[in-house]
Structure formats: C-alpha cells, structure tokens
Protein 1
Amino acid sequence: MSRSVVVIGGGLAGLVAARHLADGGAAVTLYEANETVGGRVTTNTDDGYTLDRGFQVLFTAYPAVQRELDLAALDLRRFSPGATIARPGKRSVLADPLGDPGAALASLRTDEVTTTDKLRTLALRQDLGTRSYDELLRRPDTSIREWLREWGFSEQYSNNFIAPFYGGITLDRSLSTSKRVFEYTFKALSDGDSAVPAEGMGAIAQQLAAAAADAGATITTGEAVTELKQKRRHAVVVTDSDRRAVDAVVVATGARPAARLTGCDSIPTEGVGCVTQHYRLPDADDLDTGRRLLLNAGDSAPNTVVPMSTVAPEYAPDDALLLNATFLGDDALETDSQQLAAQTRETLSAWYPERRFAGLEPLRTDRIPFAQFAQPPGVHESLPDVRDGGRRTYLAGEYTEWSSIQGAMASGRAAAQAVLEDY
C-alpha cells in the first residue's frame, strides 16, 4: 500500500512538494483554502489587463527555477538588465555592461554613482560568479549596508541605486536585511534574467499544479484545513468538510498559519509588507526606460514604478500603458488608495516634466502585510528544518530556506524528499 500524504497549502512550496511526493509513489491530496492555487504568486485579469498580485518577477537563474519549471513553456518576457534611476527632472540608466552592452555608454555617463562604484560592481560580479549558490547562504553575515561599506562602495551608491533597487527585492530600503540575500540575488541577476510569463506570474503556479496533477496528486481548492492532530501512528487532518487519517502531512501554508497548525516556535512570524498599485494610462507612449524599472532616488514613495506593458505587451490592450508602483512600510498599508495614486502621478510628473499624467487611473491595489518574513543578519541559522513540524508533520515554505521563489520551491522539494525517506 502506498503511503498517504496530505499537503496543506497550494502555494509554490506546496505544489512542488505534491509533485515530488506523487512522483515518489505517495497518494497525495493537496488542500488549498483559496479558490485558486499560487499563494502570493497569483494573477488577476481586468478588462484586458493582466495584474499580478504585487510586483513580482522570476529570476531565471535560481537553481530551483531551473529544476522545477519549463521556462520555454512560460513564454517569458524579460526585463532589460539594470534600472533607470529617477529623480525630479532627471533620469539616468545604470546597467550591467556585460549583460547589456548597448547601455554601457549611458551607464558610464550617469553621475548617480561614482566611477569607482561602477568598477567595484564589476569586481563584485566576478567574485560572486566564482561561488556556488549554496555557499552564499553559509557565509558570515551582516547587513547589506554594512557589507557594501566593507567592499568600499560609497553612500551615494547605496542610497541612489541599491536602496531603491533592493528595496524592491527585500522590501527594506534601509538595507538592514541580511547580505546573504543581496549576494544570492545579485548572482542570480548576473547569471540569468528577470522576467514575467506572458500570461502573468500566476502561470508559474498553474504549471506547477499541472505537473503535480499529472504525477497523480489530487488538488482540492476552496477547502481550508481547520485542524491538524499529530498521533503516534498517523496524523489527522480536519477540513471544512472532511476528516482523514494519513501517514504524513506537509504543512505548506504561510508562516503564521504554519506556526499555528504545528506549534513550531522557530517559524518566523514577523513579516514585512508592501502595497502595489496597478494603473492604466490611456493613449500613452512608453516611458522610454528600455524595459527597465524606474527607481525612486529622490524619495521613497513610491519606491519603484514599473512599465509592465512595455516589458510584456500582452499585459495590456494596445491603446494603453500598464504601470505599477510599489510602496514600502506600514504607513503605505494604511494609506488610502486614491492618495497612493496621487503620489504616483506627482512622482511621474516630476520625473517626466514634459509629459502629462492626469489620466493615470488606478486599476487595482494589492495590500500585502506579510509579503516576506523579516530577514535581518543571522536569521537563517534560526530557521526551522523541514522535519521540525512535529510527529509525522513536515514543513514546506520559504521560512525553512530564505524568503524568495527560490526558497519556496527548494523547501517544497526538500520536504517531499524527507517524507519519502522516512516512510
């Protein structure tokens, strides 16, 4: 008789776990409380617009992405390397000359960072290129800002480029996040691309769900697990409409629900949040960023503005430009949507004084209070192992690795392997 396993949660970690468990011969049922799988990686459509939940991108070089996804089938639309640094009345490009030779001259001309900073960036790229991804998560830790100082980067570089750019990745413009996250993502950006699927980020979850179903897993959506009981010979899973005893359970919910279900006190429950607002700008030309995101070097609200339909034309009708803006911090979570939109109009008008943005219309506002778990220096040593969920219960979530798509997928695979080894 095959072992029976319930996976609780249909985010990326749960979907990856379900697939590998089913591939290993287990009888797998996945329960997802929402009507669709994907967790935070979902996409909504609105009158011809493709609106990802929050601003997320796929780093194609992540090892788990390479293992788990069929990237060709996702029909990716790629961002240009680097970014456009913007402040009132001024925009300049800073790009990796090795990844985007066409932008080399523009990058050399920018005065937002020093020439020494540009040379150190190339040296950093070379240094990280010699290291494995696993090694980067084991190296001695400090904050991103302190580590940049140790490397000799100027405060100008940290404040004008790294703070808004990594504010978008870590949701922490202060750069107090673990430098391991910086090194890992910097290497990934050097090794590959940042991209979105033509059908939206939700296509990633749909592909993983299809792979799990093809492997034999049963995926049940709209069914919440309300209780988990851990027994000596089995685990009991109680849902809105069912109760079943199984050999093992993989808890692949968010951090806070996982801590509640399992009682595991090493699951990090302190989160950082953000707000992403999506806009249509009718009858508008592109913002002339060359498929790069715009970094706010003059202020912090919004942190970034992204020309989504320039990167992925499928995201919007032909007669409109689709943009999104991301705001960081607790204050943004409490700010009225119309006020956020007004801030974006004011910011864009300052960056592009020759253009008009009165017609910028909000389409959707995503408020995500727990977008990532907090990752201060040294946090990774305190994270739980996939076997720390209790008797017959395993953990699958980015909170066993690090907060990222990479962490979620890698954790799902590790949890599945642990179950298959133990039963």
Note: DSSP finds 14 helices and 20 strands in the chain.
Protein 2
Amino acid sequence: MLELILILLAVAAIAALFGFGRVSGIALTGAKVLIFIALIAFLLILFGIIAIA
C-alpha cells in the first residue's frame, strides 16, 4: 500500500508541476484516502482488534 501512496504523491507532484490541476487533485485525494485507510489498519493492529497470524 505504501508503494501506491508514493506513486500517487509523485503523480500529483508531477501533474502540478506541468499545470494539470485536476489530475493533481485526483491523485492527491487518492493518496489521502489510502493514507487514512493505512492509518486505521495500523491502529486496529496496534490495539489488537485485528490479529496477524
């Protein structure tokens, strides 16, 4: 998941550099959503609600 977040952030940065605001915004929104999902999953694992076997 971390790879996809970094790819989306890179796409957002490059698109913003070339002036593609909408593409940059979409990529940045996708990265934010994935960061939120990863954070929730991390907290669930940290507090033992989800166990990794």
Note: The mean pLDDT is 93.
